[in-house]
Amino acid sequence: MKNNPTIALADDHVLLRKGLADLVSKQGYTVLFQADNGEELLDKLKTNPEPDVVLLDINMPKKDGYETALWLKRNKPGIKVLALSMYDDEKAIIRMLKNGARGYILKDAEPSDLKSAIESVLTRGFHYSEMVTGKLIHSINAMSEEDSEIKSTLGLSEKEITFLKLAATELTYKEIAEQMHLSPRTIDGYRDELFEKLDLKSRVGLVLFAIKNGIVNIQ
After folding, report:
1. What is the CATH number of domain 150-212?
2. Which of 51, 64, 103, 109 lies 20 to 30 A from 117 at CA?
3. What residues are paired with 31 via a beta bridge?
4. Between helices 158-167 and 184-198, what is the axis angle to 10°?
5. Distance between CA 31 and CA 20 in Å, rounded?
6. pLDDT tens profile 115-150
7. Which residue in 127, 32, 136, 31 sits closest to 85, CA to CA?
8. Is the C-alpha dihedral spanning 109, 114, 120, 121 positive or negative?
9. Cα(165)–Cα(28) distance, rounded to whole angstroms?
């Protein structure tokens, strides 16, 4: 990791944002600029150097975190997005992952957790706290995204692959069962077996795994 990595912040809660900026500055990072929303962030990118990491609030006016993360993914792939969330909202986190966020952190996290999250994004490329194990983070960074043999190497069945694809949508587990013409109990069985097989703890972990291994395509 280079000296004094650069940070930009986008959050419409001014006091919180300024507090975060002050905190990350004290932690040894250089804050390039701050923005009230995604639209302002993208405007400021036109006249400022590109930051290494953007701390990006999810809920903002004008251009929210989802739109902004997707734009950055498509147009500025060198910038790593760390999503800021008020709540441990599974659907929001999954949507941010699919839009290119490298991780998320809750706004009430400890300062040491914020520093750990930023360093993880900078050095490993990802940060997902306890919802994804360190073992998975290590494995996805060791795998080639173009490895077409990944599915067979992992020993996943077609049903499991279908389940992973549906898990990356906003469908509930009950709706996934209906879509696959299976009982909810069978779907629970697929989920629990994949948790064990892939050493995961949550649906977010399943989605991250599916994205990184090409099971779910991100447009």
Report:
1. 1.10.10.10
2. 64
3. 7
4. 90
5. 10
6. 999 998 898 787 766 554 444 444 444 444 444 444
7. 127
8. positive
9. 40
* Whole-number CA gyration radius for the chain: 18
Measure Cα distances from 93 to 4, 51, 85 in Å.
28, 22, 8
Report angle CA 92, 98, 100 to the nearest 5 degrees: 105
Distance CA 124, CA 182 (A): 38
3-state secondary structure 98-112: HCCCCEEEECCCCHH
DSSP-H helix ranges across the chain: 14-26, 38-45, 65-75, 90-98, 111-123, 134-142, 150-154, 158-167, 173-179, 184-198, 203-212
Residue 78, CB-side half-sphere exposure with 13 Å CA sphere:
6
The answer on pLDDT for 68 being more than 90 is: yes
CATH T-level fold of 6-131: Rossmann fold (3.40.50)
Q: Six-digit token pair at 78?
A: 């060198």
- Cα separation, 51 vs 33, whole angstroms: 9
Q: How confident is the model at residue 2 (pLDDT cuts 50, 70, 90)?
A: low
pTM of the model: 0.69
The CATH 1.10.10.10 portion of the chain extends over 150-212
Numbered ranges of CATH 3.40.50.2300 in the chain: 6-131
**CA distance linking residue 162 with residue 147, whole number of Å:** 19
